[in-house]
Specification:
The chain has about 475 residues and is of the alpha/beta class. The chain has 13 helices and twelve strands. It has helices spanning about 15-20, 65-80, 90-95, 105-120, 150-165, 185-190, 195-220, 240-265, 270-275, 285-295, 345-355, 385-400, 450-460; strands spanning about 10-15, 85-90, 125-130, 170-175, 225-230, 235, 300, 305-310, 360-365, 405-415, 435, 445-450.
Protein backbone atom coordinates (compact mmCIF):
# COMPACT_ATOMS: atom_id res chain seq x y z
CA UNK A 1 0.00 0.00 0.00
CA UNK A 2 1.25 3.47 -0.89
CA UNK A 3 2.30 5.56 2.08
CA UNK A 4 0.68 8.84 1.17
CA UNK A 5 -2.68 10.18 0.11
CA UNK A 6 -2.99 11.67 -3.41
CA UNK A 7 -1.04 14.81 -4.19
CA UNK A 8 -3.10 17.97 -3.59
CA UNK A 9 -5.44 16.08 -1.26
CA UNK A 10 -7.71 18.60 0.47
CA UNK A 11 -7.10 18.06 4.18
CA UNK A 12 -9.13 20.26 6.47
CA UNK A 13 -12.16 20.75 8.65
CA UNK A 14 -15.81 21.70 8.31
CA UNK A 15 -18.27 23.99 10.07
CA UNK A 16 -21.69 25.54 9.46
CA UNK A 17 -22.48 29.22 9.93
CA UNK A 18 -25.49 28.62 12.18
CA UNK A 19 -23.44 26.36 14.47
CA UNK A 20 -20.37 28.56 14.83
CA UNK A 21 -20.86 32.20 13.81
CA UNK A 22 -23.28 33.63 16.37
CA UNK A 23 -23.93 37.36 15.79
CA UNK A 24 -27.40 36.34 14.68
CA UNK A 25 -28.68 39.87 14.07
CA UNK A 26 -25.38 41.70 13.52
CA UNK A 27 -25.15 44.12 10.58
CA UNK A 28 -28.73 43.52 9.54
CA UNK A 29 -28.69 39.74 9.33
CA UNK A 30 -32.20 38.32 9.16
CA UNK A 31 -33.57 35.39 11.14
CA UNK A 32 -33.12 31.90 9.75
CA UNK A 33 -34.83 28.62 10.50
CA UNK A 34 -31.86 27.77 12.77
CA UNK A 35 -32.45 30.90 14.85
CA UNK A 36 -35.80 29.63 16.15
CA UNK A 37 -34.51 26.21 17.26
CA UNK A 38 -33.98 25.91 21.01
CA UNK A 39 -31.34 23.76 22.66
CA UNK A 40 -32.22 20.15 23.38
CA UNK A 41 -30.39 17.25 24.95
CA UNK A 42 -29.67 13.69 23.88
CA UNK A 43 -33.03 11.97 23.45
CA UNK A 44 -35.02 15.23 23.64
CA UNK A 45 -35.44 17.04 20.30
CA UNK A 46 -34.90 20.73 19.81
CA UNK A 47 -38.05 22.83 19.83
CA UNK A 48 -39.05 24.95 16.84
CA UNK A 49 -40.70 28.15 18.08
CA UNK A 50 -42.86 30.74 16.37
CA UNK A 51 -40.23 33.44 16.16
CA UNK A 52 -37.79 34.19 18.96
CA UNK A 53 -39.49 33.62 22.31
CA UNK A 54 -38.29 35.39 25.45
CA UNK A 55 -36.76 33.19 28.17
CA UNK A 56 -35.85 30.40 25.74
CA UNK A 57 -32.25 29.62 24.82
CA UNK A 58 -31.30 29.55 21.14
CA UNK A 59 -27.74 28.24 20.64
CA UNK A 60 -27.29 29.78 17.17
CA UNK A 61 -27.65 33.32 18.49
CA UNK A 62 -24.14 33.42 19.96
CA UNK A 63 -22.80 29.98 19.00
CA UNK A 64 -18.99 30.12 19.41
CA UNK A 65 -18.57 33.69 18.11
CA UNK A 66 -16.74 32.64 14.93
CA UNK A 67 -18.23 35.70 13.22
CA UNK A 68 -16.01 37.91 15.36
CA UNK A 69 -13.11 35.48 16.00
CA UNK A 70 -12.75 33.96 12.54
CA UNK A 71 -9.22 35.32 12.03
CA UNK A 72 -8.05 33.69 15.24
CA UNK A 73 -9.79 30.44 14.33
CA UNK A 74 -8.47 30.29 10.78
CA UNK A 75 -4.95 31.00 12.06
CA UNK A 76 -5.31 27.90 14.24
CA UNK A 77 -6.52 25.91 11.24
CA UNK A 78 -3.48 27.12 9.32
CA UNK A 79 -1.24 26.04 12.19
CA UNK A 80 -2.59 22.54 11.72
CA UNK A 81 -1.80 22.83 8.02
CA UNK A 82 -5.31 22.91 6.58
CA UNK A 83 -5.50 22.82 2.79
CA UNK A 84 -9.26 23.32 2.82
CA UNK A 85 -11.89 24.88 5.07
CA UNK A 86 -15.46 23.79 4.45
CA UNK A 87 -17.81 26.48 5.73
CA UNK A 88 -21.16 27.94 4.86
CA UNK A 89 -22.47 31.35 4.02
CA UNK A 90 -25.50 32.42 6.06
CA UNK A 91 -28.06 33.19 3.35
CA UNK A 92 -29.85 35.66 5.65
CA UNK A 93 -26.64 37.71 6.05
CA UNK A 94 -26.77 38.40 2.30
CA UNK A 95 -30.56 38.59 1.85
CA UNK A 96 -32.07 39.04 5.34
CA UNK A 97 -35.56 37.89 4.38
CA UNK A 98 -34.45 35.81 1.41
CA UNK A 99 -36.52 37.69 -1.16
CA UNK A 100 -34.82 41.11 -1.40
CA UNK A 101 -33.64 42.32 -4.78
CA UNK A 102 -30.48 43.96 -3.44
CA UNK A 103 -27.98 42.06 -1.25
CA UNK A 104 -26.58 43.43 1.99
CA UNK A 105 -23.07 44.75 1.47
CA UNK A 106 -22.12 44.20 5.13
CA UNK A 107 -22.74 40.48 4.75
CA UNK A 108 -20.85 40.22 1.48
CA UNK A 109 -17.91 42.12 2.92
CA UNK A 110 -17.73 39.81 5.93
CA UNK A 111 -17.28 36.74 3.77
CA UNK A 112 -14.75 38.59 1.60
CA UNK A 113 -12.69 38.96 4.76
CA UNK A 114 -13.17 35.30 5.70
CA UNK A 115 -12.08 34.08 2.25
CA UNK A 116 -9.17 36.51 2.10
CA UNK A 117 -7.97 35.19 5.46
CA UNK A 118 -8.20 31.60 4.23
CA UNK A 119 -6.34 32.38 1.01
CA UNK A 120 -3.67 34.27 2.93
CA UNK A 121 -2.79 30.91 4.55
CA UNK A 122 -3.17 28.88 1.35
CA UNK A 123 -6.47 27.37 2.51
CA UNK A 124 -9.08 26.65 -0.19
CA UNK A 125 -12.61 27.60 0.88
CA UNK A 126 -15.25 24.95 0.19
CA UNK A 127 -18.54 26.78 0.56
CA UNK A 128 -21.93 25.31 1.36
CA UNK A 129 -24.49 27.69 -0.11
CA UNK A 130 -27.39 26.58 2.09
CA UNK A 131 -26.56 24.72 5.30
CA UNK A 132 -29.65 24.13 7.44
CA UNK A 133 -30.65 27.80 7.64
CA UNK A 134 -33.31 28.96 5.20
CA UNK A 135 -34.21 32.64 5.74
CA UNK A 136 -37.25 32.72 8.00
CA UNK A 137 -38.76 35.39 5.76
CA UNK A 138 -39.34 32.79 3.06
CA UNK A 139 -41.87 30.96 5.20
CA UNK A 140 -44.54 33.41 4.06
CA UNK A 141 -44.20 31.79 0.63
CA UNK A 142 -44.36 28.28 2.06
CA UNK A 143 -40.57 28.01 1.88
CA UNK A 144 -39.33 25.34 -0.56
CA UNK A 145 -42.84 24.07 -1.25
CA UNK A 146 -43.22 27.20 -3.39
CA UNK A 147 -41.46 27.23 -6.76
CA UNK A 148 -40.83 30.98 -6.41
CA UNK A 149 -38.17 30.24 -3.77
CA UNK A 150 -36.01 28.76 -6.55
CA UNK A 151 -35.69 32.24 -8.02
CA UNK A 152 -34.69 33.72 -4.66
CA UNK A 153 -32.05 31.03 -4.21
CA UNK A 154 -30.67 31.59 -7.72
CA UNK A 155 -30.47 35.35 -7.12
CA UNK A 156 -28.46 34.57 -3.97
CA UNK A 157 -26.21 32.16 -5.92
CA UNK A 158 -25.61 34.65 -8.72
CA UNK A 159 -24.64 37.27 -6.14
CA UNK A 160 -22.07 35.10 -4.35
CA UNK A 161 -20.71 33.41 -7.51
CA UNK A 162 -19.93 36.83 -8.98
CA UNK A 163 -18.72 38.42 -5.76
CA UNK A 164 -16.32 35.61 -4.84
CA UNK A 165 -15.14 34.67 -8.31
CA UNK A 166 -11.44 33.87 -8.06
CA UNK A 167 -11.67 33.37 -4.29
CA UNK A 168 -13.96 30.34 -4.09
CA UNK A 169 -13.99 27.52 -6.63
CA UNK A 170 -15.49 24.66 -4.62
CA UNK A 171 -19.20 24.86 -3.84
CA UNK A 172 -21.93 22.65 -2.36
CA UNK A 173 -25.52 23.58 -3.20
CA UNK A 174 -27.40 22.15 -0.17
CA UNK A 175 -26.12 20.50 2.98
CA UNK A 176 -27.31 16.91 3.47
CA UNK A 177 -30.16 17.38 1.00
CA UNK A 178 -31.70 13.99 1.89
CA UNK A 179 -32.48 15.33 5.36
CA UNK A 180 -35.67 16.60 3.67
CA UNK A 181 -36.91 13.06 4.34
CA UNK A 182 -35.95 13.03 8.03
CA UNK A 183 -35.71 16.59 9.40
CA UNK A 184 -37.34 18.83 6.77
CA UNK A 185 -37.29 21.93 8.96
CA UNK A 186 -33.51 21.83 8.97
CA UNK A 187 -33.33 20.89 5.29
CA UNK A 188 -35.57 23.66 4.06
CA UNK A 189 -37.96 25.27 6.51
CA UNK A 190 -40.63 22.61 5.96
CA UNK A 191 -42.49 21.68 9.15
CA UNK A 192 -44.80 19.01 7.79
CA UNK A 193 -45.25 15.25 7.98
CA UNK A 194 -46.96 15.25 4.59
CA UNK A 195 -44.92 13.34 2.01
CA UNK A 196 -46.34 15.31 -0.91
CA UNK A 197 -45.10 18.52 0.74
CA UNK A 198 -41.65 17.10 1.42
CA UNK A 199 -41.23 15.70 -2.08
CA UNK A 200 -42.42 18.94 -3.66
CA UNK A 201 -39.84 20.84 -1.60
CA UNK A 202 -37.12 18.34 -2.54
CA UNK A 203 -38.06 18.70 -6.23
CA UNK A 204 -37.68 22.46 -6.02
CA UNK A 205 -34.28 22.09 -4.32
CA UNK A 206 -33.16 19.69 -7.07
CA UNK A 207 -34.14 22.27 -9.69
CA UNK A 208 -32.47 25.07 -7.76
CA UNK A 209 -29.28 23.04 -7.46
CA UNK A 210 -29.28 22.17 -11.17
CA UNK A 211 -29.69 25.82 -12.13
CA UNK A 212 -26.94 26.82 -9.68
CA UNK A 213 -24.51 24.26 -11.11
CA UNK A 214 -25.01 25.61 -14.62
CA UNK A 215 -24.71 29.23 -13.47
CA UNK A 216 -21.53 28.51 -11.51
CA UNK A 217 -19.90 26.99 -14.59
CA UNK A 218 -20.99 29.94 -16.76
CA UNK A 219 -19.70 32.57 -14.33
CA UNK A 220 -16.37 30.80 -13.77
CA UNK A 221 -15.39 27.64 -15.69
CA UNK A 222 -13.00 26.82 -12.83
CA UNK A 223 -15.89 26.35 -10.43
CA UNK A 224 -16.57 22.82 -9.20
CA UNK A 225 -20.00 22.25 -7.69
CA UNK A 226 -20.93 19.23 -5.62
CA UNK A 227 -23.91 17.82 -3.81
CA UNK A 228 -23.87 16.88 -0.13
CA UNK A 229 -25.45 13.65 1.10
CA UNK A 230 -26.20 12.79 4.74
CA UNK A 231 -24.33 9.51 4.72
CA UNK A 232 -27.03 7.05 5.67
CA UNK A 233 -25.47 3.68 4.90
CA UNK A 234 -26.97 0.43 6.17
CA UNK A 235 -26.31 -3.29 6.54
CA UNK A 236 -28.99 -6.02 6.49
CA UNK A 237 -30.00 -7.48 9.84
CA UNK A 238 -29.42 -10.98 8.48
CA UNK A 239 -29.23 -12.95 5.24
CA UNK A 240 -32.99 -13.44 5.39
CA UNK A 241 -34.23 -12.38 1.91
CA UNK A 242 -36.80 -10.15 3.57
CA UNK A 243 -34.03 -8.33 5.44
CA UNK A 244 -32.15 -7.94 2.16
CA UNK A 245 -35.21 -6.39 0.52
CA UNK A 246 -35.63 -4.10 3.52
CA UNK A 247 -32.16 -2.69 3.01
CA UNK A 248 -32.86 -2.08 -0.69
CA UNK A 249 -35.99 -0.16 0.28
CA UNK A 250 -34.14 1.83 2.95
CA UNK A 251 -31.27 2.82 0.68
CA UNK A 252 -33.71 3.79 -2.07
CA UNK A 253 -35.32 6.25 0.37
CA UNK A 254 -31.94 7.90 0.90
CA UNK A 255 -30.00 7.44 -2.34
CA UNK A 256 -32.64 8.75 -4.71
CA UNK A 257 -31.41 12.22 -3.76
CA UNK A 258 -27.97 11.30 -5.06
CA UNK A 259 -29.49 9.66 -8.13
CA UNK A 260 -31.24 12.88 -9.15
CA UNK A 261 -28.26 15.14 -8.54
CA UNK A 262 -25.55 12.84 -9.91
CA UNK A 263 -27.45 11.16 -12.77
CA UNK A 264 -29.79 14.00 -13.66
CA UNK A 265 -33.11 12.18 -13.44
CA UNK A 266 -35.51 10.51 -11.03
CA UNK A 267 -34.92 6.75 -10.78
CA UNK A 268 -37.66 4.35 -11.83
CA UNK A 269 -38.10 2.99 -8.31
CA UNK A 270 -38.93 6.46 -6.97
CA UNK A 271 -41.38 7.23 -9.76
CA UNK A 272 -43.18 3.94 -9.06
CA UNK A 273 -43.33 4.85 -5.36
CA UNK A 274 -44.85 8.22 -6.21
CA UNK A 275 -47.38 6.45 -8.43
CA UNK A 276 -48.39 4.10 -5.59
CA UNK A 277 -48.66 6.91 -3.02
CA UNK A 278 -50.41 9.40 -5.26
CA UNK A 279 -47.56 11.92 -5.12
CA UNK A 280 -47.41 14.27 -8.09
CA UNK A 281 -44.30 16.31 -8.86
CA UNK A 282 -44.96 19.89 -10.03
CA UNK A 283 -43.04 19.40 -13.28
CA UNK A 284 -43.08 22.25 -15.78
CA UNK A 285 -41.81 22.37 -19.35
CA UNK A 286 -38.03 22.24 -19.46
CA UNK A 287 -37.59 21.05 -15.87
CA UNK A 288 -36.35 17.58 -16.70
CA UNK A 289 -33.80 19.02 -19.12
CA UNK A 290 -32.61 21.38 -16.37
CA UNK A 291 -32.04 18.44 -14.02
CA UNK A 292 -29.97 16.66 -16.64
CA UNK A 293 -27.91 19.73 -17.54
CA UNK A 294 -27.30 20.55 -13.89
CA UNK A 295 -25.64 17.36 -12.71
CA UNK A 296 -23.02 17.94 -10.02
CA UNK A 297 -19.26 17.67 -10.55
CA UNK A 298 -18.61 15.63 -7.42
CA UNK A 299 -20.42 13.95 -4.55
CA UNK A 300 -19.59 14.93 -0.99
CA UNK A 301 -21.08 13.35 2.09
CA UNK A 302 -21.03 13.08 5.86
CA UNK A 303 -19.99 9.83 7.48
CA UNK A 304 -20.50 9.24 11.18
CA UNK A 305 -22.13 5.85 11.52
CA UNK A 306 -23.86 2.93 9.84
CA UNK A 307 -27.34 1.52 10.41
CA UNK A 308 -28.74 -1.98 10.54
CA UNK A 309 -32.01 -2.49 8.67
CA UNK A 310 -34.35 -5.44 8.54
CA UNK A 311 -37.88 -6.58 7.75
CA UNK A 312 -39.18 -5.02 10.98
CA UNK A 313 -37.81 -1.55 10.17
CA UNK A 314 -40.52 1.06 9.73
CA UNK A 315 -39.65 2.95 6.56
CA UNK A 316 -42.26 5.66 7.10
CA UNK A 317 -40.07 8.67 7.83
CA UNK A 318 -43.01 10.99 8.50
CA UNK A 319 -42.50 12.77 11.81
CA UNK A 320 -39.24 10.94 12.41
CA UNK A 321 -36.62 12.93 14.29
CA UNK A 322 -33.66 11.48 12.44
CA UNK A 323 -33.30 7.86 11.36
CA UNK A 324 -34.08 5.01 13.74
CA UNK A 325 -34.20 1.50 12.33
CA UNK A 326 -35.02 -0.59 15.38
CA UNK A 327 -31.80 -2.57 15.18
CA UNK A 328 -28.39 -2.35 16.85
CA UNK A 329 -25.17 -3.71 15.38
CA UNK A 330 -23.71 -6.15 17.95
CA UNK A 331 -20.28 -5.96 16.31
CA UNK A 332 -19.79 -2.24 16.87
CA UNK A 333 -19.22 0.07 19.80
CA UNK A 334 -21.22 3.26 20.10
CA UNK A 335 -20.40 6.86 21.00
CA UNK A 336 -21.69 8.62 24.10
CA UNK A 337 -24.63 9.70 21.97
CA UNK A 338 -25.43 6.17 20.77
CA UNK A 339 -23.96 6.44 17.27
CA UNK A 340 -22.38 3.24 15.95
CA UNK A 341 -18.63 3.65 15.43
CA UNK A 342 -17.78 1.90 12.16
CA UNK A 343 -14.49 2.85 10.45
CA UNK A 344 -14.71 -0.07 8.01
CA UNK A 345 -18.08 1.20 6.93
CA UNK A 346 -16.38 4.30 5.55
CA UNK A 347 -14.51 2.20 3.01
CA UNK A 348 -17.73 0.35 2.20
CA UNK A 349 -19.61 3.63 1.69
CA UNK A 350 -16.91 5.04 -0.59
CA UNK A 351 -17.09 1.95 -2.77
CA UNK A 352 -20.88 1.91 -2.77
CA UNK A 353 -21.13 5.53 -3.90
CA UNK A 354 -18.33 5.42 -6.45
CA UNK A 355 -19.59 2.19 -7.99
CA UNK A 356 -23.00 3.81 -8.35
CA UNK A 357 -22.04 7.24 -9.70
CA UNK A 358 -18.46 7.14 -11.05
CA UNK A 359 -17.67 10.72 -10.06
CA UNK A 360 -15.11 12.06 -7.54
CA UNK A 361 -16.05 11.82 -3.87
CA UNK A 362 -15.19 13.87 -0.82
CA UNK A 363 -15.72 13.22 2.87
CA UNK A 364 -16.85 16.60 4.18
CA UNK A 365 -17.99 15.54 7.66
CA UNK A 366 -16.55 12.84 9.90
CA UNK A 367 -15.86 13.05 13.59
CA UNK A 368 -16.63 11.94 17.11
CA UNK A 369 -18.93 13.86 19.41
CA UNK A 370 -17.67 13.29 22.96
CA UNK A 371 -17.42 14.85 26.40
CA UNK A 372 -13.95 16.39 26.87
CA UNK A 373 -12.26 17.17 30.18
CA UNK A 374 -9.96 20.13 30.70
CA UNK A 375 -7.17 19.10 33.06
CA UNK A 376 -5.84 21.38 35.81
CA UNK A 377 -2.90 22.35 33.62
CA UNK A 378 -5.25 23.28 30.76
CA UNK A 379 -4.46 20.23 28.63
CA UNK A 380 -7.15 18.08 26.98
CA UNK A 381 -6.26 14.45 26.36
CA UNK A 382 -8.70 13.23 23.70
CA UNK A 383 -7.05 9.96 22.68
CA UNK A 384 -10.53 8.55 21.91
CA UNK A 385 -10.95 11.16 19.17
CA UNK A 386 -7.51 10.43 17.73
CA UNK A 387 -8.32 6.71 17.67
CA UNK A 388 -11.63 7.34 15.94
CA UNK A 389 -10.15 9.56 13.25
CA UNK A 390 -7.07 7.38 12.71
CA UNK A 391 -9.20 4.29 12.14
CA UNK A 392 -11.41 6.11 9.64
CA UNK A 393 -8.49 7.60 7.73
CA UNK A 394 -6.90 4.16 7.40
CA UNK A 395 -10.07 2.79 5.85
CA UNK A 396 -10.37 5.78 3.52
CA UNK A 397 -6.79 5.17 2.39
CA UNK A 398 -7.68 1.55 1.57
CA UNK A 399 -10.57 2.75 -0.57
CA UNK A 400 -8.13 4.99 -2.47
CA UNK A 401 -5.19 2.59 -2.79
CA UNK A 402 -6.79 -0.83 -2.99
CA UNK A 403 -10.17 -0.02 -4.51
CA UNK A 404 -9.20 2.90 -6.74
CA UNK A 405 -11.85 5.31 -5.44
CA UNK A 406 -11.02 8.95 -6.37
CA UNK A 407 -11.33 10.87 -3.10
CA UNK A 408 -10.73 14.62 -3.37
CA UNK A 409 -10.33 15.43 0.28
CA UNK A 410 -11.37 15.07 3.89
CA UNK A 411 -12.77 17.84 6.09
CA UNK A 412 -13.24 16.64 9.66
CA UNK A 413 -16.32 17.82 11.57
CA UNK A 414 -15.82 20.26 13.24
CA UNK A 415 -12.26 21.44 13.82
CA UNK A 416 -13.26 23.59 16.77
CA UNK A 417 -16.07 22.79 19.17
CA UNK A 418 -19.36 24.13 17.81
CA UNK A 419 -23.07 23.81 18.58
CA UNK A 420 -24.31 20.28 17.83
CA UNK A 421 -26.95 20.39 15.09
CA UNK A 422 -28.88 17.40 16.40
CA UNK A 423 -29.25 18.57 20.01
CA UNK A 424 -27.99 22.16 20.23
CA UNK A 425 -25.55 21.06 22.95
CA UNK A 426 -21.99 22.25 23.49
CA UNK A 427 -20.94 19.28 25.61
CA UNK A 428 -21.13 17.10 22.50
CA UNK A 429 -17.70 18.25 21.35
CA UNK A 430 -16.01 17.34 18.07
CA UNK A 431 -13.11 19.75 17.80
CA UNK A 432 -9.36 19.70 17.73
CA UNK A 433 -9.82 23.04 19.49
CA UNK A 434 -11.77 23.31 22.73
CA UNK A 435 -14.08 26.32 23.05
CA UNK A 436 -14.87 27.38 26.60
CA UNK A 437 -18.67 27.57 26.48
CA UNK A 438 -21.25 25.43 28.26
CA UNK A 439 -24.68 24.20 27.17
CA UNK A 440 -26.25 27.47 28.30
CA UNK A 441 -23.87 29.64 26.32
CA UNK A 442 -21.80 30.69 29.33
CA UNK A 443 -18.01 30.82 29.23
CA UNK A 444 -14.96 32.77 28.16
CA UNK A 445 -15.03 31.62 24.50
CA UNK A 446 -11.34 30.88 24.93
CA UNK A 447 -9.78 28.48 22.36
CA UNK A 448 -7.61 25.63 23.74
CA UNK A 449 -5.68 23.11 21.65
CA UNK A 450 -6.44 19.46 22.40
CA UNK A 451 -4.01 16.58 21.92
CA UNK A 452 -5.80 15.82 18.65
CA UNK A 453 -4.77 19.26 17.35
CA UNK A 454 -1.10 18.23 17.32
CA UNK A 455 -1.94 14.77 15.97
CA UNK A 456 -3.85 16.15 12.98
CA UNK A 457 -1.03 18.60 12.28
CA UNK A 458 1.34 15.60 11.88
CA UNK A 459 -1.20 13.81 9.67
CA UNK A 460 -1.40 16.74 7.26
CA UNK A 461 2.36 17.42 7.32
CA UNK A 462 2.98 13.82 6.26
CA UNK A 463 0.04 13.79 3.80
CA UNK A 464 -1.46 10.92 5.75
CA UNK A 465 1.70 8.88 6.13
CA UNK A 466 1.99 9.49 9.88
CA UNK A 467 -1.23 8.41 11.57
CA UNK A 468 0.30 7.36 14.88
Amino acid sequence: MAKEFPENFLWGGATAANQCEGAYLTNGKGLSTADVMTAGVHGVPREITDGVVEDKYYPSHNAVDHYRLFKEDIALFAEMGFKCYRMSIAWSRIFPNGDEEVPKEEGLKHYDEVFDTCLQYGIEPLVTISHFETPLGLLKYGSWENREVIDFYIRYCETIFNRYKGKVKYWLTFNEINVMSTKPWMAGGINSDDEQTRMTAAYHQFLASAKAVQMAHEIDPNNKVGMMYAGHIAYPASCDPEDMQAIVDFMHKMLFYCDVQCRGYYPAYKLKEFEREGIVLPIQDGDLQELMKGKVDFLSYSYYLTHVVGKDTNLDFKGLNGVKTGYKNPYLQTSDWGWAIDPKGLRYSLNLLYDRYQIPLMIVENGLGAVDKVEEDGSIHDSYRIDYLRDHLREMKKAIDIDGVPVMGYTMWGPMDIIAASTGEMKKRYGFIYVDIDDNGNGTFRRIKKDSFYWYKKVIESNGENLE
